[in-house]
Amino acid sequence: MAASLRLGRQGILFGLRLSTTFDRCVWATHPCQENVRHFFRSPWILGVSPVKVQMPALSPTMEEGSIVKWLKKEGEAVAAGDALCEIETDKAVVTMESNEDGIMAKILMEEGSRNVPLGTLIALMVDEGQDWKQVEMPPLDAAPPAADAAAAPVVPSPVPPPKPATSGPLRLSPAARHILDSHGIDPKLATPTGPRGLITKEDALILLKTSPVPKATPAMAAPSSAPTPAATPLPPGSRPNIPPLSIPGKPGAPGTFTEIPASNVRRVIAQRLTQSKTTIPHAYASVDCDMAAVMHLRKDLAKEQIKVSVNDFIIKAAAVTLKEMPEVNVTWSGDGPRALDSVHISIAVATDRGLITPIIKDAADKGVQEISANAKALAQKARDGKLLPEEYQGGSFSISNLGMFGISGFSAVINPPQACILAIGTSRSELRLCEDDQTLCTQQLMTVTLSSDGRLVDDELASRFLDKFRGNLEKPQRMALA
Fold this sequence. Notes:
With 482 residues, this protein is α+β, with helices and mostly antiparallel strands.
């Protein structure tokens, strides 16, 4: 019994000594462990956590943008509110500002990058005091931009030539025949998917992608003095190829055109015009307005150093007419007509990037001189690409004036969701019979054409609108009393 107690006491003492020795070893190696842990946590191993800069939505209708110019370089300090870059939206060139303080670490989308979707990562920033050169690159979820892809071209793997699909008489659509003839591809290699074995345009495009590029066309390989080889007889029942070979330098031949990249503004214009002409039933009505009173009033105002244009009177007359006829001041939404409470006139301004329509708000409540000042300022901002979204969105009625170019009359395309657009021609002098004394007199006439949405403004309503518009324009004093 005594021996057992002594052995148990010695075991407890031995365990206490061993625990103390182990703690000393752990504390002795602790500084080394901290150094190793700090090394693996350092930016040299893991990198500095970045602040992502993404393509923002700078306008309500913007879906993608193009980077025009970077205003900050890599390594420069950035404060909240500083301009980072200039981005071309669907309407104008807008300056993108930073929301945070930091340092510009990496520019991922270079200047000139086009059609960058919203939310795409365009740059990386780091917090102040961190090493921007050690920024951690996030994994790329999307494919690299076209500019980077062009810098490092990938050699495509050779595609085996397709086998002829048919042996009987060939039937080609005109578009398919033109594509295959222009590239010198045998139509027998195409797989027809059209009715009764017809080779469609899609079949020709698929064959063009899968066929190897010919080494040299007969027209380019042989000199002009060489004899022309005899044409291969066509199978019975097929149509002849006209011309049999594409001729370099001729219209329609490959290499006779230059691809022009479309700007965001031009692409949006194309989409909206296509939408307008395919979804809106356009109706047209024209009327001649006597501009003698407006011309006389302009001369009187010029004597008092008040310079206004004929277009300013047209804007005022259209706005007053819309206020007198609110049934025309409507737009079309997905659910149907929508009446507007205010009169905002959109004016078409031609720029290098396309046609922009800035808005003169509450034009019916403004004088002609104030309308003139607003129109000049908005037109200059549109040409400089500095329009704000609220300055070109929300118009209720559009005016397009080509009179300064000598156009006698034209029909404009409605700008959806608006219901009407007024096309203004040039003024001209004509001899007409005066109804009062039955004598000939000279009148200064201007042709005005109203394009209206037949779903909202029918022919009778459009005619009444033009009649009242003509009355306001021919008697400018009525606009002050309206």
